[in-house]
Amino acid sequence: MATLQLREAIRDAMVEEMDRDSNVFLMGEEVADYNGAYKVSEGMLERFGERRVIDTPISENGFAGLGLGAAMNGLRPIIEFMTWNFAFVAMDQIVNNAAKIRYMSGGQFSFPIVFRGPNGAAGQLAATHNTTVEALYSCFPGLKVISVSNPDDAKGLLKSAIRDNDPVVFLESEFMYGMRGEVSEAEDYLISMGQARIAQEGDAVTIIGHNKSYWRALEAAAMLADDGYQAEVIDPRTIRPFDWEAVIRSVKKTNRCVVVDESNPFASVAAEVAFQIQHRAFDWLDAPVRRVTAKDTPAPYARNLMDHYLPGAEDVYRACREVMYL
Amino acid sequence: MAPMIDTLDAVTQPASTNGQSSVSADSIKVSLSFSHYPGGRFAHVDLGLSVADLEEMYRNMLLQRRFEERSAQMYGKQKIAGFLHLYIGQEAISTGSAYALELGVDSVITAYRDHGLALALGMSSNECMAELFGRQDGCSKGKGGSMHFFSREKRFFGGHGIVGAHIPVAAGIAFAHKYKGDGGVCVCYLGDGAVWQGAFHEALNLASLYELPVIFVIENNQYAMGTSVDRSAADPNLFKQGASYAMPGALADGMDVFSVCRAMQDHVAMAREGHPSLLEIRTYRYRGHSMSDPGKYRTKAELDSHKNEDPILRLKSYLLEQELFAIETLDVIDEEVKTEVLESVEFADNSPLPPLEAIYDDVYTQQDFPFLLI
Fold first, then answer.
1. At A178, which CATH number?
2. Most CB atoms closer than 10 Å: which of A184, A207, B277, B302?
3. Is the complex ipTM more than 0.85?
4. What are the backbone dihedrals phi and psi of residue B101, each rounded to the nearest 5 degrees, phi first?
5. For A269-294, what is each residue's pLDDT tens digit?
6. Separation of alpha carbons B63 and B161, rounded Å
7. Are the C-beta atoms of residues A34 and A3 closer than 8 Å to each other?
8. What pTM was estimated for this model as a whole?
């Protein structure tokens, strides 16, 4: 195992796949000369040259669409958004073209493309720079959506995403880029999409969390452990397709579930997970499924308001105690 | 060489107030030139077209016309649903440019008024009519309909329904041609309305910046749905739009198939050298924007004046005046085309509906994607 920052694990995945397949290239704002706004692509221009590591003007709709055309015509682009907040101007390309052209062409054209970048809350940046988009993109059949919480998953899943022949939305986090973790050094380290990771086994309650929310889930589980209860913590890792089996198996064991999700609550990932659990495991539930999400507001600027806005470990802990009737 | 349209734009800079500015107080003069391909200027021999080519061109334009007339009729009989945007009047553009391309190597992409181009690229009337009917044998297996014809084999990258959304995609198709070094170019057709989408401007800038082998062809049929170019464009000379992106622009006459073909030959040659360009082709659509549009925003006199310069009649007159074909030969072609279209209607009517299980097919390449079934 190697100890890597999240940004290094993501970079390693891209570098390995670009070494392996000359049709893979990286394009985005500041990815080349500047070495990446968050230094994810540091050194890649030097290694691969300007043919394969390409700076763009600030034209997200344009270069997202350019990536799609390149994918339609045989290449495997990695399109970096400086943040997913800036991808809203490219939503037409992602939602109407990436997700639907394969279907409308009767399967004649495919899109082996990865759109990646940081997503979710990133500090006191106010509302436009703090959007969480897992649920949004998961609404669209044709897309696959991955949201990672740690360097090891990031490497294995990004390599799989780059090799996948369908368009993948790959969600990272500004807050986690510097986070270190053990990363497999196995040759060709691939993690299959659609497989959740059971981070901690337990029988008292199932806590589900992805991306940063995964860490809130773990913190809450530690607090429950202090109370003498062992929680089961699941990181779904892939939001679309979602590993329902892993979640349902766990809920049938613990009979209680709390879903942590940094999205705004309406039609969030948590909303769908809660629905599926009641649909598939109603008779096993000893309490209604609870969710802990961001508030139903835009993200505020003031520090105290922002702390209040985001789901915190305390909130998760309290929700767990509620479903355990403690 | 085509004649040039010259314009001279003068930009006046304010004089510096403190005397420190490096900006000159003199006015900045920008001289712009655009190639012009007027109708009636080119003969088939100038374009390297053989008499056999002319026969095929005539047949192809007529096929598009008859195919769409029949489509409109089938729409009335409710065999075809959804939106149906007819290309009637614009056939010189599809056919004229097909003869400037290396079919099978070059790539083509367009918006939703896509039937004519599909037929010009050699897609069969059967697969096109079956798609309109929403049948399994349609070119998109009944998943796309009128606005979404595709053919991987013919390198026809669609048929796109959102105005302007396909223009950046065209830049990407061209990017891949250049990246792979396969010698292909991409032609991107768009309407005059699409010029006012941001996607158009982003794509032109990217194409020029990366020197992509792409030709952006504006099919200016004078109306974005019911809004005339005069009412939507601050400067109705759309061919000038490339100038801000350091891209050559030109104007061709879309009612003359030779004007189109010659312009496209020049622009394709530029693209092969790695220079993107913009070509405005002025044309006219005889029908409404779609089947539900009665076209009340224009006068009958205006419509009739354009019908008088009909591109198919124009080519027919040329073929007869030049004594290249006897009228009897052209009549036979007319009959053959009519028969082909009638047969395509029969083919489409007999083609099975897509099976219900097919609803999950083609969403993903992954065969076992676990769709939510509730």
1. 3.40.50.970
2. A207
3. yes
4. -105, 160
5. 999 999 999 999 999 999 999 999 99
6. 23
7. no
8. 0.96
